[in-house]
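Troubleshooting entry. Yesterday's outputs looked truncated, so today I'm pasting the complete records for two proteins to confirm everything comes through intact. If either block looks cut off, that's the bug. Protein one:
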Amino acid sequence: MSGIQQAKAQLREVGYAILPNVFSLEEIEQFRRRVVRAKDRMPSTRENPSSRHFAGFHRCAELAGLHADLVQSRLIVEVLGTAYEHRDFNAIGLSDITINRSQQWHTDLLRGPYQRFGVSEVCWQDSEPSCYKALLYLQDGERLFVLPGSHKLGRHIEDTEAEQLAMGTSQAK
């Protein structure tokens, strides 16, 4: 099975795929420098004053290129094209940058005009993929807990059992 087919299978089965070497270390460092230069444009969103969040960064001229590089990456486009069975797909402009915003549990929420797609029949289905999110980490982290298959469970952000499952501390099945 090719790497592209394997990524497609992972997206379908566990809800995520890790794509190594999409960008070089030099490109990652350039992206990081651009984000750090723009951090003063990002509001502080937690008690920690160094915690920042910038929703919709693709609309900011100095960061728009970062979004374009991500959504036009050959490998990302190839994986998504395969995952969508070569049907048309596009980026819907839900871009975020977060700095020092660790939290115990996270689920992607659709807001604004896309909120109507956040219903169970669309988000947590077994058959057709509806929405994928590409994440690009610009520095190493200590750990990321993932709940494989949660893309089919319909868990919400207030769900403490999902957090326990992701961290391997739940007895729930």
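Protein two, checking that the full record survives here as well:
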Amino acid sequence: MAEENKKEEQKVESKNSTGTFVKIILGFAFLGLAAYLLVGRNWWEHTWLVVKGCAVPFLVLAGIITLAIAKE
């Protein structure tokens, strides 16, 4: 009985490690593609426009949350 449990645990661990490895490789592939698009294609202007566009809503939400916390 104990041996069966150990074998099942080993199977689960090998499946988890394989999935984790695939996710890590996929993450590096996405980061590499992003770096290529930013540096290789010179998309700095577009990227800066997106950053500036996201900054205002972020600051508004941060201000609202800060006021809500201070109100308590």
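Both blocks look complete. Sanity check on protein two: The first helix runs from residue 2 to 40.
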